[in-house]
Every structure is written in structure tokens, then in C-alpha cells.
Amino acid sequence: MEIERKFLLKSIPEDLERFPHRLIEQGYLCTAPVVRVRRSGENFTLTYKGGGMMARREENLPLTQEGYRHLLAKADGNIITKTRYCIPWGDYTIELDVFAPPLAPLVMAEVEFPAVEEAEAFTPPEWFGREVTFDPAYHNSNMSRRKFD
User: Fold this and answer.
1) To 5 degrees, how large is the angle CA 58–CA 29–CA 87?
2) What pLDDT digit, counting tens, does each position of 85-105 carry?
């Protein structure tokens, strides 16, 4: 089960580069249900995500690099590339994503939780902006379908 809240940002931490980060590339084979392939550093995965907004089923299966490339070539829409920074925040980790074109200059933060109650009780830091957890336009699967001129 994946339980997360998503936010746009008012500002980006000035010292962002000091936090661990990695390049992520992902493509979507299907959006209903969501079936995604992802490269995160040297790890390759096939992911299934069930329906839902803040809490939903998520299954990850390992892929080889060759399998990832084969499936990525079959992806529909935009291939999403982003740099993910992992920022410790109390008991949690803020995953701050800086998107590359065509989604740039989008920057979004996600926080994952072990339980819905913890997610609901979370007080975001002051540099977080509008919450977009329940806005389907900010699901990466939907963003992969955006048209750009």
C-alpha cells in the first residue's frame, strides 16, 4: 500500500544539492490501471498502481536494464524525467522532485506514510505550497499525457 501526500512548493531549500539525489526516468504503458516502468539510478522496475488518491495499492517488480528499455519504447505519452532529492523531515523523508522538460519548471514534494492516520496528521513545512494530493492532474501518469506545444 502506498500512502502519500503531494504538494507544490512556495520555495525550494537553498541547500538542495547537499541532500542525496538521483535521476529518475519513467514511462507509462497504461494509465487505467497505472502500469509504469522506471529507472532510478541503476534500478529498473515495473510498477502497478491501483485506484485511489492518497492511499492505493502499489506492486513493484524488478526489471533488467534490457527489459526496461524494451518496455519504455512501448510507453505512451511523455517520458518523465526528474531529479529526486531525499530530505529528512522528522520521522519522514520529503521526496522533492525537480522535473525536466517538458514538465519543467514543475517542482513537487511527496511524503510517504506508514498509515493513513499519520498522513492525515502530518503538518507540512512552511516552504510547502498548495496540496495537490487529491488533484489527479498531478499524478505522474496523467502528467505523462499532457500535450505541449
Assistant:
1) 50
2) 999 999 999 999 999 999 999
